[in-house]
Design a protein that fits this description.
By secondary structure, the chain is mostly beta strands. Helix content is 5%, strand content 33%. The strands form 9 sheets. A 6-stranded antiparallel beta sheet has the order 1-8-7-10-5-3, with no helix packed on it. A hairpin with a 6-residue loop joins strand 16 (327-332) and strand 17 (339-344).
């Protein structure tokens, strides 16, 4: 996940001060040695290798960790340098002028978290020609006394404690730094320094190690060691070729609560921020699942949206109506390498393949909205060759309402994108699509069926159709009422199964149909025995092409406890713990509501403030971080197709 740099520990004298820590804590997850729940899914070795995503927080204005202040001091003056775009370290003139830099981050909301890694990420933009290729030394020290970025000087600078040594250096024309506009984390100026022990010391419950930040310093006599870094104040391209991106600002990266798979959810609620910065905006949110009861205090540990802050500068991509994300999933990057976030947003039409966990820049992005067409994007999927498939429930595709579109890898080229599909397939009410690496097929969910879709030779064609079981109906007892599909996700730990959510409830789908998997002893309102044993098409006519008892499965653990809601918008399981997360809205009692201005009646919305989590023992909890949240889907951050 991180680029490792050679480091060593330095020891210096420094005072210790007592500071009361924040009460907003993030509890530890269960110890790794704890016995696995009896009902947790059995994972193959390959599945375990992919189930490794842990909460990963980067300091930023919307995130769990916040940047507080930074500046440099010099032996040459007493000026306030806190608003400059550069931080200086060392001496450029053999000790005549000396520089040190100071940084501070707020990590109080990580108090009590089980921190596994913490890195200081900086962007090195300059070293003298004499240091090119020599990787000169620099130290990162724990500051032991209070300081203020506006008043700190060489004369009143605080004492420091222990330190970390690191060796690197570039940025001169002879060894130039090369900022990457579209993938900032690929820039060669990025350096990471291991500060895990310092962050652990600041966040340990009851700690007596106050967080006064970090000092960057190096050799201050003779030649060698001078460096410039981008500061927390990005500038314009006219002032600096590199220090224009927020990603290049000094940043703490912290991985914590390992084994607690994050939950990703779009949120149409854009909360206000202190002093109006950043501007309140809908966002994709990352929530730690270790103990969801602390969400009101911890809130999302990370937020993302396709804006300039996250190095998405092309405003034609995100439009003006970004609504937080309709479909979002982690995937292996395939031709792009690493892991990626694949996300699409119905409101704005943005579809992107975003490097993860960097969450800055993009490998691929387009906007799928069209003049006169509904803003109805509901599903996205990345294929290993770099192309992307999208699902639209109502847009006219090949003369029909709803369908899939395939966009080539070239279509999303950064700086030269277009939204002309390479292939399209009419598919009524298409809501979501999932790639199956074992077979090379796609599985797509439409209004009334799950479809097996071929993507051979860059075309899309339906290979097979599996109708959803109908719903019990008083008005139509023989034919029942149709069930409308909403979400389609992998059942992690069982590559033959997919979760299917609908307005009727939840069910698992067996791709192979190799064995009877419908258990008649399970009490549920959908799907019921009658309409599983006798499948019917979208018009209610009997369809005998498939044996429903072999494809529509309720034999999974705690099916009765999990399948309790109607109008389920999302469903998924965590392969690490066996937890299941769902959201529901519309006629579900957990839906957000508003007052219809014409009738004065309470109307239920298509989103909810609540994410329900079912534990491996079947117990159920409803969690939210704000009454104002507006979630549609919630997915587990598992970088795998199945």
């Amino acid at each position: 996940m991180f680029k490792r740099r050679r480091t060593t520990r330095l020891a210096t004298a420094g005072g210790v001060f007592l500071l009361a820590l924040s009460a907003l804590t993030v509890p530890r997850p269960a110890p790794a040695s704890a016995a696995a729940p009896a009902q947790a899914p059995a994972l193959s070795e390959a599945a375990l290798a992919t189930a490794t995503a842990s909460p990963y927080a980067q300091s930023g204005p919307r995130n769990l960790i916040k940047r507080l202040q930074d500046t440099y001091i010099t032996s040459a003056d007493t000026a306030d340098h806190s608003q400059g775009h550069l931080l200086h370290v060392g001496t450029p003139d053999n000790g005549a002028t000396k520089y040190r830099s100071f940084l501070r981050f707020d990590v109080s909301r990580l108090t009590g978290a089980n921190i596994s890694k913490a890195y200081l990420r900086v962007y090195n933009s300059y070293v003298p020609a004499s240091d090119c290729g020599k990787n000169p030394w620099m130290g990162v020290y724990r500051v032991a006394e209070p300081w203020d970025e506006h008043t700190i000087t060489w004369a009143n600078q605080p004492a420091v404690g222990e330190g970390i040594g690191s060796w690197f250096g570039l940025g001169h024309p002879d060894c130039p730094d090369v900022p990457n506009k579209y993938l900032p984390d690929k820039s060669n100026g990025i350096q990471r320094i291991d500060v895990t022990d310092m962050v652990k010391g600041w966040t340990r419950p009851g700690t007596t190690t106050p967080n006064y930040g970090l000092r960057l310093s190096t050799t201050e006599t003779g030649a060698g060691g001078y460096k410039d870094f981008c500061s927390m104040n990005p500038t314009t391209a006219g002032n600096d070729a590199a220090c224009t991106r927020a990603y290049f600002a000094p940043t703490l990266e912290v991985e914590f609560n390992s084994g607690s798979t994050p939950i990703i959810t779009g949120n149409e609620y854009g909360p206000p921020y202190a002093d109006g910065y950043p501007v309140a905006h809908e966002a994709l949110e990352f929530l730690d699942s270790a103990n969801p009861s602390v969400w009101p205090d911890s809130k999302p540990y990370q937020r993302w949206l396709p804006d300039a802050y996250h190095s998405v500068d092309d405003t034609s991509l995100n439009g003006a109506n970004w609504k937080g994300g309709t479909s979002h999933k982690l995937r292996p990057g395939g031709v792009y390498g690493g892991n990626v976030l694949v996300t699409g947003d119905g409101g704005s039409g943005f579809v992107g393949v975003i490097p993860y966990p960097a969450l800055s820049g993009y490998h691929w992005a387009i906007n799928v909205n069209e003049s006169g067409a509904p803003a109805d994007l509901h599903g996205v999927e990345l294929l290993p060759n770099g192309s992307v498939v999208t699902a639209f429930p109502s847009r006219t595709i090949a003369g029909a309402a709803g369908g899939l579109r395939l966009y080539s890898r070239a279509a999303g080229t950064p700086g030269a994108w277009h939204n002309t599909p390479a292939a399209e397939l009419p598919l009524p009410g298409a809501h979501e699509v999932v790639y199956d690496p074992a077979s090379g097929f796609l599985w797509a969910l439409g209004s009334h069926a799950v479809y097996k879709v071929s993507v051979a030779n860059g075309t899309l064609s339906i290979e097979d159709t599996f109708y959803l079981p109908r719903q019990t109906s008083t008005a139509h007892p023989e034919t029942g009422d149709p069930a409308y599909g909403h979400d389609l996700t992998p059942v992690y730990g069982n590559p033959d199964r997919l979760w299917v959510s609908s307005n009727g409830g939840l069910v698992q789908f067996s791709k192979s149909g190799s064995a009877v998997c419908y258990d008649t002893s399970v009490s549920q309102t959908w799907p019921v025995k009658t309409f599983v044993e006798t499948l019917r098409d979208e018009k209610g006519a009997v369809n005998t092409a498939k044996d429903g008892t072999r494809h529509w499965c309720n034999d999974y653990p705690h099916a009765q406890q999990i399948n309790t809601r109607k109008f389920v918008k999302s469903i998924g399981n965590d392969p690490v713990t066996g937890k299941v997360a769902t959201t529901c809205a519309d006629e579900c009692p957990l839906a957000n509501t508003h007052i219809d201005p014409k009738t004065g009646q309470v109307v239920r919305d298509y989103h909810t403030a609540v994410i329900e989590i079912i534990q491996p023992d079947g117990s159920r909890g409803a969690y939210q971080w704000s009454d104002n949240s507006k979630h549609y889907r919630a997915t587990w951050a598992v970088p795998s197709y199945q």
